[in-house]
Amino acid sequence: MPNRGRQNPRQAGQTRGGHGGAAPTSVPTATRIQYFSEKQKLDPVLVDAKAQEWASSFVRENTPLKTTQMRRFYDDLKAIERRILLGKDVHAQQANFERDRALILMFKAKAVYAEKRRVSPRAFTQFIFDHMESIKELRDFQAFLKIFEAVVAFHRFFSEER
Fold first, then answer.
1. CA–CA separation, 143 vs 121, rounded Å?
2. CA separation for the pair 84, 106 (Å, rounded)
3. The whole model's pTM is what?
């Protein structure tokens, strides 16, 4: 069938994912996040104001993050947490965390892959890199999951998806 005056999306500068523009050429530099206050409690700002800030940044960029894409990341991380928590006591759970730490760190690769495919914005990749840098023990991972849960909820609010 002839292409009646319509330009091929790849010829128009678009790539898979439907968004044009230059592809990222480097991975983000991670910045460590302090999860706990001086009293060793999860910093409430991270699940409130900061979570709102992160969530809104994921929809403001040229490649807004779809709710399903964010849920995919969150659900996969929760599945890892469930495997870790199968340990009978804290020591077994910490050992499970050490066993699965590489799987957690793989989310950096998953984030840059999603960004390269143009289904995820750079702000989300930065979010993942910063948090992966901050997770050193099971307690950190669980704090991150609470924060991510808040981000998912706020993202749903800010997203223009139905």
1. 23
2. 16
3. 0.83
